[in-house]
Amino acid sequence: MAKEKATITLDRAKAAEAQMLVGAMSTSAVVDIALDRLIRAEQIRHDVAGYRQIPQGEADVGIVASGDFSVLDDDTDWAALYDDLT
Fold this sequence. Notes:
Elements: H1 12-22, H2 27-51, H3 58-66, H4 78-81
Helix pairs in contact: 1-2
């Protein structure tokens, strides 16, 4: 995907701390990493919400109860799969 220049307002201290934490070479790289992580987190949240809409078995309830949704971290669009059940 092509990148474009953009003007944003941000907290320079947060950007510098994030740059140090992830080892990014620039503020632009930090913003790109942050957006990638936000997009992935929201996709997972969306999938979990879709997954919760169907009747759950014991194994499924255990995943939700643990709060560890990493086992659901794949490319399956759970919300789309179960859209007809809502």
